Predict the 3D structure of the following.
Amino acid sequence: VLAFPPGFNVARVFIDRHLAEGRGAKVAIRTTQGDTTYAELAAGVNRAANLLVSLGIGPGERVLMIVKDSVAFFQLFWGAIKAGVVPVPLNTLLRARDYAFMIADSGCAGLIYSPEFAAEVEPGLAQSGHRPVAVMLAEGGADSFAARLAAQSEQFEAVPASAEADCFWLYSSGSTGNPKGAVHRHRDMVVTSEFYGVRTLGAREDDVFFSAAKLFFAYGLGNGMTFPLWVGGTAVLLDARPTPESTFATIERFRPTLYFGVPTLYAAQIHALEARKPDFGSVRLCVSAGEALPAETLRRWKERTGLDILDGIGSTELLHIFISNRPDDIRPGTSGRMVEGYEGAVFDEEGARLPPGQSGRLMIRGLSAARCYWNNPEKTAATMLGDWLNTGDTYTCDEEGYFAYCGRSDDMLKVGGIWCSPFEIEAALIEHPDVLEAAVVGNPDAEGLVKPEAWVVLADGVRGTSSLQTALALHCKERLAPYKFPRRFHFVEDLPKTATGKIQRFRLRSQE
Ligand code: 3UK
């Protein structure tokens, strides 16, 4: 369906094409700092490509980006791709230990970070034992990426690549072990933009896109950068934590037509709507992904705003949403039907396809699937099975092709739409002197959204007070990314275990 000429470099169609199509004066990006036109963006991208070349960073080499949602993110990401360099946007909420791993694992040639994240990135770099040839701040100071662009030329010819060539990576975390770098190709953003952005959402040139999910998530990268650039629309960026207040203020100020959130944020926004009702007049459609959207959240949102929410499931490995509800066909409590261009099926443990209604492993086939995990043949072999990709999700599919989420086949939790490993939280808890043993599982809160819950055996003589709960939550937040902490604690005498001493986590899950 999609044609890619020889030598295809995806920066030509997402950046250069707009000048050829006369869109140079149109606003591509809006932030509270000001607007950036397509012509300005294209010039900044070329300057960034020239800067990377001048630093001696060449095709195939990686540049890690720990960069907040900003024009610099766009310039660096596309400048790298245009020069054949592989940009790797990282989650900006992580800790030094996480960055140390990714810096070493990627063997990056460049590391560029917003000053806000220096306190975790700089010790991470020191711990990594790897020395990238170029390390710089994204902005702030004469040596920063933004400042150094000024000395570069605004002309740059895209380095020839191909639809199948490696283009960018995104790291995804697993329940145990280290994060895995999903290697995406030049064609992948075209595939997601056309099949999901245009043909599922109906994205158009006059759309204004606002994603509460940040650009470093595959979800945010599509919503807030790829889709607007594909249709020649406008992206609105929020350089702050997405809260009901900050998102409402952004919607009122910039009047987006498409709004992208996650279930936890919709739930918080619904509460905030009781106190203040912002003007949603510009929005024609809301989207949710990252974790299942409870039917009740959708019902309340529609009741209070008059707007629909399209739930769809996507993944870092497939880059964006591959099963989705449609504007004219919404089944609350389901992920909807297959997005055009993707094939999906539910399999049993032996690899046989299951009949409608039975739950099993959801496998997906599609042209935006990651080629592999970098430097990780075991995880690649377990996930990428020929051209099928194992999502790790348990789903049912009914006679009419509607898919419904049943749970994960591993222990991973989605908390606020972001991956969270219960084992990582347990490991942090048992580092606390008052904790003898800990088990963490996901249980739904009052909103029907999964939150980590801890069962803790305390050291002799320690009392399970509410101030100890606060202290343990803080202890986790300090050691781990700030969203990785138990929302509820249970202090118990012992944990349920098998005869061989293995913790029976399933006994701690409320649904079982
Ligand atoms: C879960 C959902 C039920 C599911 C993502 C949109 O979330 C994204 O990517 P991640 O790699 O996580 C993937 C996993 O998250 N999930 C996501 N959406 C839903 N479960 N209903 C949903 N609507 O376990 C999936 O395997 O962080 C979402 C676009 C791009 C993305 N990368």
